[in-house]
Amino acid sequence: MIIGGKAGQGTNKAGSVAAHLFSEMQRDVFQMNDYPSLIRGGHNFSVVSSSVGPIRSHYLEANLIVALDKRSFETHKNHLAKNGIIVVNSDEVKGSGTGIPITTETKKYSNPMLISGLASIAILAAAVGIPKEELIEIIKKEYKRNLEENIVFSTEIYGIAEKTIGHKFTLKKGTEKKKSLTGNDAIALGAIAGGLDLYFAYPMTPSTSLLHFYANNGKEFGVTAMQPENEIAVANMAIGATFAGARAMVATSGGGFGLMQEAFSLAGMVEAPVLFYLGQRPGPSTGVPTYTEQGELRYALNPGHGEFPRIVASPGSVEESFYLTAEMLGLVWRFQTPGILLTEKHLAETTMSVTLNPERTSWAEPLMHASGEFKRYRDTSDGISPLLFPPSSSVIKWSSYEHDERGFTTEKPEEIAQMHEKRRKKLHSLIEYLKTIRTVNVFGNGKPFIFTFGSTTMSVLEALEYGDISATVIQPVYLEPFPVWELEKYRGKQGIVVEMNSTGQLATILHDKVGVEPKALIQKYDGRPFTPTELASKIKEVT
Amino acid sequence: MADTLATAAENTWCPGCGNFGILNAIKKAISTLEQHGITRDYVIISSGIGCHGKIFDYVNLSGLYSIHGRSMATVQGIKLANPSLKLIDFTGDGDAFGEGISHIIFAAKRNADITVITHDNGTYALTTGQFSPTSSKGFKGPSTPQGNIEEPLNPLTLLMEVGATFVARGYAGKIDHLANLIVKAVEHEGFSFIDVLQPSVVFNDTYKEYNERVEILEKPLGSYEEAVRLAKRREGKLPIGIFYQVSKPVFHHELYGDWNPVENRVSRQERLEKIRRFIEDEL
Asked: How far apart are CA A21 and CA A17, in angstroms?
């Protein structure tokens, strides 16, 4: 279904309640919110798609559309699926669709604007034949503020909808009731599972909900959230926190990550295990803040001045976000170097049905100094120096200057070279370790080969299922070090590359690093994620 | 007595540099703090980049040699992770009032429980003497051959205005007085700041001027207004000492009370159990 209205009418909230309602029927859901960068007015909409069994994308072709205002009707009237219905606010739209005077009805209540989104839930409940009593239970759980008004209003609308559209749809019940959560929720929980202690962030879409998550729920898990004055402070405070032995994560988007560059390099030099979350949105610059893109792959692979190892990985689903975040937090600690969790708005803010098993997560446990003289940058065979945290009778010196093994500034040629080699040894150790874990996901075994990454993986998988297309989908989860050992088997092979940017960044990397010949490049760079119908037809065009 | 706070690092400050006075003062202060029960294991240092920053290598204490302007953020991160530690951050006037001015203002604003010592020599000495945020008007350097056309910042009044709860001025030429200021600053609960008048013998040799003008404040100032008035004084005697001190709630305690993130870490099993419950109840 699609719920459309103005910002402030609660369409996103209504979307998530609708998703919850489908979940209650043991169906899987996928909810995508589309909203411009403003607080009141404009046009917001939430697409909630549901199926029995896994669903990895929203479908814009909706069986039920609720247009709370005229603009929503104009925008979405062509998105109506065959046999679908469009319910309009008849105070704004005359002569089309099924009319309900939503504005008139809301005027009886204390906050007409905010309450109007609730109408869509009542309409959905009526349309799929959920009894009024069950609707009231849902309202009690999800719309607690002004509850009495909410119950009266929703039963009123439910009554009108029952008369006008009746129980139009019969939805099959699924077999398993799953939880639905956003990519950012999954990342927040994954980091906690991996050992997070301190979270630092300056608000920036699409990372912001992580800050809210930890501010609201962190205490329960012993996690503290801090909002400093800017992203420069964010990154430097996180580095300081790791010096004291705390597991720290920061999150931002492209612009904020630009401000973190010098700290990223500092983390490489002092060997600080900080996990950076980089949520992509359309750039360059301010770009289109509340939409999605994958234009920062190259940016994520090359941040910070100077040479040092870094770990970059990008999850391909909400579920994978959970495990990968814990794994990345473990990796940055194991190798004492900064890492980047690369996501997009489409993953960060999308709600999806998942089954999470916390026991399967990994845990960040650093190598600790045991005995003998402590040297912070002890030159070991694998380049990894055992750690000590203060307070300690041994002196622990981390330094941004090139340093000797004890952490004192050096300008001696042999020591400069030695430390370069130590950091390079860490890179080799990291690569050897990555060879022992899963770094590339492969789905299916048909032809052609389709390469993609990040949240676009979900779009590709759903498009293949929708279009009944056979293919092998190859998703590098780890992007730096690039898993050539896994991908080399595709050398010289032709493949289709699907990515959400205009220059084909993944295609270029695949070509340069493993010699994949991109036969076709399917791109999208209008801020909107692929829908299965359009992507399926594009894949068919090139095969 | 052996100088256990000394390191093997070769000292590369210019002979006669004011930084030597600050180095001696910090060593004295650490000895006094240890007598007061604050052991050196708990004292963590940081510094920015510039001549002042070299002090990091010359004091045998744990810490993080940060980057230009950011050490004030670094120490706040360390403090938040383990509030049992005492943080001393050495900065230059370029670090604190140029590159990193946002960090010092916000550290003061939130009353972060750290001590910031600014080696205020009024010049960018390590890059050969350009004007700095605290250079006087008319200061001649390689980037201002006709003289600095900007007015200097006043570190003391600026920090008092934004909420610092301990504001002092010291002089690198009065080591015992400075050592005592450092002890009091570290013992102060909340954001403490010492602006240290530091002659740069090569680029801004102010020894003669300071030796004539510096005057030790004999008793605490009566009010915030008096502190501001005295800090603004440009002519005549240059007072050194504690200008302003007030007790206010500190940031980390306001944020998480008696919690200590590294000492009270929640175990893995407990986390997994809580996550399972959270998914079940809240989602």
From this structure: 6
